[in-house]
Amino acid sequence: MKFIIQRVTHASCTVDGNVTGSIDQGFLVFVGVSDKDTKEIVDKMVQKMLGLRIFSDEEGKINLALKDVNGSVLLVSQFTLYADCKKGNRPSFTDAGSPDFANEMFNYIIERSKSSGLKVETGIFGADMKIELLNDGPFTIILDSDVICSKKN
Q1: Is 79 labeled as catalytic in the residue annotation?
Q2: What is the spatial distance between Cα 8 and Cα 18, in angstroms, rounded to a whole number?
Q3: Residues 3, 55, 79, 125: which is the catalytic one?
Q4: pTM
Q5: Main-chain phi, psi angles of 146, to 5 degrees
Q6: Could you tell me if 12 and 23 are in contact, meaning their C-beta atoms sit under 8 angstroms apart?
Q7: Catalytic-role residue among 30, 78, 106, 122
Q8: Is 80 noted as a catalytic residue in this protein?
Q9: Residue 78, CA distances (Å) to 3, 33, 75 in order
């Protein structure tokens, strides 16, 4: 599982001209799922994401989490995070989760994120989404379950 987390001042997702999700300060999170992912992996990844302290405190130190700034989350599924570009110029997506499984995991990510009590908005799984954002910093973090959930961590 991969999360690309962008700290934003605002972000939105539009499908067919309709806004499906919109947030102010918080995280825009692009989510990639592989077939080896589990609900246990989701739990660890969501806990890590929600606990990230990447907002500035009163002294300007990067020290606050989403809950500390009353932030929100916009979750967007993105299978292209599993693009394999090793051979040739056309990416392969064989490492991405099958659509049914990835959708199930994405819905579980939404459920786990909402259980935090924070405002959680979403894109639409499998749709042609248009994403608008203002990255704050810019500040972008990559969470990879191969690293976050390894036995060494």
Answers
A1: yes
A2: 21
A3: 79
A4: 0.93
A5: -65, -25
A6: yes
A7: 78
A8: yes
A9: 9, 8, 10
Residue range 15-71, pLDDT digits in tens: 999 999 999 999 999 999 999 999 999 999 999 999 999 999 999 999 999 999 999
Per-residue tokens: 103: 């959708």
Say how many CA atoms lie within 13 Å of 89 toward its Cβ: 0
Q: Catalytic: 101? A: no
| Each residue's pLDDT tens digit, 128-140 | 999 999 999 999 9
Q: What is the DSSP string of 44-71?
A: HHHHHHHH---EE-TTS-EEE-GGGGT-
Amino acid type, 80? T
Strands 55-56 and 62-64: antiparallel
Report cis status (omega within 30 of 0) of the bond before 91. Answer: no
d(CA 124, CA 20): 7
Catalytic site residue from 47, 80, 94, 140: 80
Residues paired with residue 122 on neighbouring β-strands, in sequence order: 75
Half-sphere exposure of 74 (CA within 13 A, CB side): 28
